[in-house]
Amino acid sequence: MSDTPAIAQGFAKCEKPERYIQQLVKHWGHKHATSYDEGDGMGTFPFSDLESAVMLARPGGIAITLTTAEQDRNEHMRGVIERHIDRFAFREAPLEYEWKDIEEA
After folding, report:
1. How far apart, in whole angstroms, are the C-alpha atoms of residue 76 and residue 78?
2. How far from chain centre, in Å, is Cα 94?
3. Is 25 a domain residue?
4. pLDDT band of 103, cuts 50, 70, 90
5. Overall domain count for the chain
6. What does the alpha-carbon distance between residue 91 and residue 44 come to, in Å, rounded to a whole number?
């Protein structure tokens, strides 16, 4: 395991980002201590001590920051997030996702 976390930023183009984030917060809230800030349209998803996602409603979609301990796990969790968002965005799905790995300074 690396000492440096794997961080990726993603964007999911969609018409109702706030709704989808709220649905994810409620869905994953049964297993994790999720939260939603209505003022910012921000959902936080602490999957474990080493893994988390933050989703922000933005014009035209959902901005996602995903942090994991390892790159392989980061890529796996991207797919988990995409499948879950697509499930709630079924009228628009499959959505278009853009991911970019972030280098730690």
Report:
1. 5
2. 15
3. yes
4. confident
5. 1
6. 24
Q: Which of 6, 5, 20 is nearest to 63 (CA)?
A: 20
Over residues 23-78, the pLDDT tens digits come to: 999 999 999 999 999 989 999 999 999 999 999 999 999 999 999 999 999 999 99
Domain assignment of residue 79, yes or no: yes
CA distance 41 to 30: 20
Are 20 and 82 in contact by the 8 Å Cβ rule? The answer is: no
Residue 14 has pLDDT above 70, yes or no: yes
Is residue 9 domain-resident? no
- Nearest Cα residue to 71 out of 93, 96, 99: 99
pLDDT exceeds 90 at position 1: no
* Nearest-5° Cα angle at 56, 54 to 57: 155
In a domain, 101, yes or no: no
According to DSSP H, which parts of the chain are helical? Answer: 17-28, 71-88
Domain that holds residue 55: 14-63+73-95
